[in-house]
Amino acid sequence: MIRAFACGFVGVGLAHSTQGEGNAFPVKRVTIAEGRHDGVTRGMPADYSRRAGWVDALAAPPGLFGDGNVPRPITVKITRLAGSEDLALPTKMTGQSAGFDLSAAVVVPEVLQPGDIRLIPCGFCMALPPGYEAQVRPRSGLSSKHGITLVNTPGTIDADYRGEVRVPLINLGRQPFTVERGMRIAQMVIVPVPPVNFVEVQELEETDRGQGGFGHTG
């Protein structure tokens, strides 16, 4: 059985840019609005409440944000493959959606039995600008209702890849699932990738966490 669980807060929004104390990079201050969910707070102390708070997130590379808040548009070149003229190109379903939905370019319906993995074509190639990647992620509706997700998630499409965009779907549900032509099967998010230089050192700075991992926080 697949279940979706609420986390009891709402309203995440970008506020402004600032320099975080002790941070090597500028940070974005992100506001989490007040919220209360009885299903979450039940059984907790009577004085428990959520308050509006700030969360620090690393800012994007310099130049991505034109005025400190609004990302500058980038251009991604797309080429339809032959026979895919009837399919939608990557499309945002709402004005503030982060991801572009990807449509299945299957010629005939593909049936995924429970446990099956199938590489589903999307009918287009693209050229990302240098310094960006595309992350391909599951659609929440397909994953929560049918157990349809990606076997590697998020999948990465590099800026120098020129082949057809394809999605490796896996059926983690208990029932067969049919992928129809034009079905929205995944979402694609375009994100910046900063230049990285690895520096070999003899010792690393100590942290409170240390080597704790794999569920050490509970």
Describe the structure.
With 218 residues, this protein is mainly beta. It has two domains: 1-73, no CATH class; 77-192, Deoxyuridine triphosphatase (dUTPase) (Deoxyuridine 5'-Triphosphate Nucleotidohydrolase, Chain A). Helices cover 5% and strands 34% of the residues. The protein has helices at residues 38-41, 140-146; strands at 12-18, 27-32, 53-58, 77-80, 100-103, 110-112, 117-127, 132-138, 148-150, 155-157, 164-171, 177-179, 184-192. The protein has a four-stranded antiparallel β-sheet. It has a four-stranded antiparallel β-sheet with strand order 5-13-8-10. The protein has a three-stranded antiparallel β-sheet with strand order 1-2-3, with no helix packed on it. β1 (12-18) and β2 form a beta hairpin.
Any descriptors?
4-stranded antiparallel β-sheet, Deoxyuridine 5'-Triphosphate Nucleotidohydrolase, Chain A, globular, 218 residues, mainly beta, 2 domains
Per-chain topology:
Layout: E1 12-18, E2 27-32, H1 38-41, E3 53-58, E4 77-80, E5 100-103, E6 110-112, E7 117-127, E8 132-138, H2 140-146, E9 148-150, E10 155-157, E11 164-171, E12 177-179, E13 184-192
Antiparallel strand pairs: 1-2, 2-3, 4-7, 5-13, 6-12, 7-11, 8-10, 8-13, 9-11
Briefly say what this structure is:
The chain has helices at 38-41, 140-146; strands at 12-18, 27-32, 53-58, 77-80, 100-103, 110-112, 117-127, 132-138, 148-150, 155-157, 164-171, 177-179, 184-192. The chain contains two helices and 13 strands.
